Amino acid sequence: MMKKDFIKYKVKPDDSLNSIAFRMNMNKHDLKEFHNQNCGKMDKLWFESLRGVDFILIPIAYVSKEEYEDLLQKRLPSAQDLASLHADEYNITENIQQFNKNELTFNYKVNIEIDQKATQIIAKKRQKNFKKNNCTPDDKVSSLALACMETVSPIPFIISPDGKISSFANHKTLVQKFKDNQTAIRDFFTGAPSKAYIDLFYENISNEKYFLKKISSTLLNKVLFPDINWFSRKSSWVERFKIYPNSFPLKFDFNAEYFHENIEYVETVIKGIIAENCSLQELIKGSRFENEKQEDSINASIEIHYFTNKFTKQLAEASATICICHRNELFYKHYLNLKTQK
């Protein structure tokens, strides 16, 4: 019973807790709990018999626990809401801390255009206004990397029925866009190192499977295009998650919690704890070693918070934190926040 409006019912001689609950289409235990929570100085109910009880409080608008949980679930995004899940633009902040390296903060914007076809949803994604430690990058490597990505943007993805990136909408067109625009990049970024980077970039995007895996496993895209089933999980589950750049995904034990207290948004909290052994060197190298010492394994955790509108189901804000510790010291921390443009 989630409503506290009630009537004060006069108990009749042949009434029982069960008979009153039955007439109200209620569970007798729920009725007893409601009365005891709201009766104040009146007599509490201890038994099914109402002998000696003059009045019992009955909710005016009764909602069973199952009905209430169903109502709450309907406030969360589902597979039917994929086309309306994303706002047009998000402000992104990423902060990376790593042992023996300078802390880095990145700020940029992401535009998302959703095209709903008869049988599929296509999301076109573009990143812009990139800043590193509050400055527009002016070093050659960063500028070249941004220029190369801009030539293939916006990147169109096909979104799977469960909400994740499943494939490129048209990989051949994406590669052709780079081929058509690479001359200008090569003319501007001269020298052997630049040529080597451009050649490698072309090789990487031409390998459809490799490029899709690299793009879809970034923390931004994992958070921005989550498994829609995350918003309806009732029990824990195991899932692989990539937690370190250029490494392999690891198994995590996940659980989900949902908070409905805010008048406008539902907060969904996803927490994961690493569920397999992995040494720090394996993580850094991106490959498994034989006979690696178990006591040298890393500890790692993931925590993601989603704020979705209760009525439109749109994602308004999300934050994610990955923590990797080794020998009780922080080795790597990656924080990401995305928020709708106001």
Structure write-up:
The chain is α+β, with helices and mostly antiparallel strands. It has two domains: 6-72, LysM domain (Membrane-bound Lytic Murein Transglycosylase D, Chain A, Roll), CATH 3.10.350; 79-340, Lipovitellin-phosvitin complex, beta-sheet shell regions (Roll). It is 27% helix and 33% strand. The protein has helices at 17-23, 28-38, 65-73, 140-151, 171-188, 192-206, 208-216, 219-224, 280-285, and strands at 6-10, 55-59, 89-98, 104-116, 121-132, 155-159, 165-168, 237-241, 250-259, 265-274, 299-309, 315-326, 329-340. The strands form two sheets. An eleven-stranded antiparallel β-sheet has the order 7-6-5-4-3-13-12-11-10-9-8. A two-stranded antiparallel ribbon has the order 1-2. Strand 9 and strand 10 form a beta hairpin.
Provide keyphrases for this structure.
alpha+beta; 11-stranded antiparallel sheet; two-stranded antiparallel sheet; single chain; 342 residues; Membrane-bound Lytic Murein Transglycosylase D, Chain A; Lipovitellin-phosvitin complex, beta-sheet shell regions; 2 domains; 27% helix; 9 helices
How would you briefly describe this protein structure?
The protein has 342 residues and is of the alpha+beta class.
Profile the largest sheet: 11 strands, antiparallel
Structural class: alpha+beta
Average of the residue pLDDT scores: 91
Strand line-up in the sheet with most strands:
7-6-5-4-3-13-12-11-10-9-8
CATH topology of the largest domain: Lipovitellin-phosvitin complex, beta-sheet shell regions
Our count of helices gives: 9
The arrangement of helices and strands along the chain is EHHEHEEEHEEHHHHEEEHEEE
Terminus-to-terminus distance: 38 Å
User: What is the total domain count?
Assistant: 2
What overall geometry do the principal axes of the alpha carbons give?
A: elongated
Quantity of strands, as a count: 13
Rg over C-alpha atoms, rounded to the nearest angstrom: 27 Å
Can you give the helix content as a percent range? 25-40%
* Assigned CATH architecture of the largest domain: Roll
Work out the strand percent: 25-35%
The CATH class label of the largest domain is Mainly Beta
Task: Detail the poorly predicted runs.
Answer: none
